[in-house]
Amino acid sequence: MTQLADSPVTLDTLAPLDRAEIMSVDWAALAPDEGKRLRALGIDTGARVAIAHRGVFFGKDPIALLVGRTTIAVRRVHARAMQVVKL
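RESULT FIELD:
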């Protein structure tokens, strides 16, 4: 089965250099202070992000995201809470 280009996937499944737009965030899956911090850093519905690089050991943590001109490191569990559409 092939995946449509505009089908939502979770952010943690993207490869380095992939670009995407965040369609939704499962804020209930995150601790309240984590969600607040991510929003303050510009990670929210509608944000356009790119995967700069991923960690190399075990769970591939952390994931470095480009949000605008800022690079932000997020844990894979946080990225898994975000539904995105690849651009």
